Amino acid sequence: MARIATSKAASIKDVAILAKVSVPTVSRYLNDREHVSAEKCERIAKAIELLAYRPNPIARALVRERTRSIAVLSTNTALFGQSQTIQGIETSARHLGYSLTISVLTDSSRKALEHSVQVCLDQNPAGVVLLNFDKIGNETVNYLPPTLPMVTIAGNRDKEIAQISLDESESGYAITRHLIDLGHRRIFHVAIPGGGGGYTRLNGWQQACEDAGIPVLSPIEAEWDPESGREIGRKLGKDPQITAIFAGNDEIAMGIIRGLGDVGKHVPEDVSVVGFDDHPISKVWNPGITTIRQNFNGAGIQAVEILNDKINDIIEGRGHTENWTKYIELKGELIIRESTAKPKS
């Protein structure tokens, strides 16, 4: 019997069309053919042979084992942004009937990441949401199989992967522009760990400075611990030419404000300080911190919705639809508070 030549691998939908049955019928044939009539079994078997169809192993696992679990890969679940994103993921997953497992990535070495990913895959999740807020998250993408339904949140744009972007570069530009419009001409950026790339708040700061024709000062990288921000604040506070600091997140901004105070500098009278993320404490800090409000919760909710569509694409035999490379931007909002003011004349 001659096979039908095709330019791409046949899908379960192709088999259903050729056999003149529904996709669920083909699925039942592949997994529980006792409930499919002999006549339909014969048609499906012939269609499979003609198309040289090979069942997707992930699809078969989803059908056979009724996997209703989503895995979340994250580097630090205690950080405000990641915890809020996971809260959104959990809300959406519960609504759609999925359970949630969380794997924490703590080491960027190849061996450690491979092990972390394998432990995750051993749980046989229906899909994965990767919180790509730093270098470790970015590296993890390379160890996840392309056939597994996956959505990333944040990070540089990868057109081969479904992604929710928090549009950090544009927000970084907007908050830097706020300082520039106040009259500041020496704006330091204190970066969060692994904050490089074209879609980051650091990139937005740099572009805003370049567009305004002011110096792009070498950024300083902080640790996630706000205490590192305090040490940086003490050092920068000794430079009389600095009038503004853009901290990579609100916790670091809080540490910087404390450090500036340690060396006798006042915010915003001597130095304006801005943060990022709109941590709940930022509005009650003294002074209230000018920041960018990000929709972390919404990112988590939408990521699971896209992931659910991708899982259904596999189960229902549609293959890789537009869901597999869907890209959604959630823009940040500039929140102006008391930590910024015009520089001294």
List keywords for this structure.
single chain; Rossmann fold; 3 domains; 434 Repressor (Amino-terminal Domain); 345 residues; 6-stranded parallel sheet; elongated; alpha/beta; 4-stranded parallel sheet
Write up this protein.
The chain has 345 residues and is of the alpha/beta class. The chain has helices spanning 12-19, 23-32, 38-51, 57-65, 80-96, 110-121, 135-140, 168-182, 201-212, 226-236, 250-262, 296-315; strands at residues 69-74, 99-104, 127-131, 150-153, 162-165, 187-191, 220-221, 244-247, 272-274, 291-293, 327-329, 333-335. It is elongated, with a radius of gyration of 25 Å. Strands 2-1-3-4-5-11 form a 6-stranded parallel β-sheet, sandwiched between helices. Strands 7-6-8-9 form a 4-stranded parallel β-sheet. A two-stranded antiparallel ribbon has the order 10-12. The protein folds into 3 domains: 12-55, lambda repressor-like DNA-binding domains (434 Repressor (Amino-terminal Domain), Orthogonal Bundle); 64-166 and 296-329, Rossmann fold; 168-293, 3-Layer(aba) Sandwich (Rossmann fold), CATH 3.40.50. The model has no long low-confidence stretch (mean pLDDT 88). It is 43% helix and 14% strand. The chain contains 12 helices and 12 strands. Helix 1 (12-19) crosses helix 3 (38-51) and helix 10 (226-236) packs across helix 11.
Outline the secondary-structure elements.
Elements: H1 12-19, H2 23-32, H3 38-51, H4 57-65, E1 69-74, H5 80-96, E2 99-104, H6 110-121, E3 127-131, H7 135-140, E4 150-153, E5 162-165, H8 168-182, E6 187-191, H9 201-212, E7 220-221, H10 226-236, E8 244-247, H11 250-262, E9 272-274, E10 291-293, H12 296-315, E11 327-329, E12 333-335
Helix pairs in contact: 1-2, 1-3, 5-12, 8-9, 10-11
